[in-house]
User: Fold this.
Amino acid sequence: MLSRVRLQKVQLSDKMPVGLTEKLTVGITVVNEKVKYVDQRFQLSDKTVAALIAAERKLNDTGSDVKSNRYVTSGAAWLNGAFNKVAKAGQVAGTKTKMKWNLALSNLTAKDRPIAA
Assistant:
């Protein structure tokens, strides 16, 4: 529901055509009455809140089950180890490539005969 404070702010800063505030007030009142009517008729609020609470509990339970599952934790550990190995291999390959590049560059700039690797 729209608050009366917001409505008062609209009234204070009303530099629009005359009657706009009144139209907004009537529109807000009509919408609020319709919301109350639908809520009372179908009891949506209570049912919706109950459904949301049940869904939240189920998600919390599922999250706890997943975190405590030994297959999930061992799979995460394996994946972490695999990423570490790939990162280390990439670092080693980068270092070797840099060494070979420096050797090739020194061979090109050397005045003497190239040194074989």
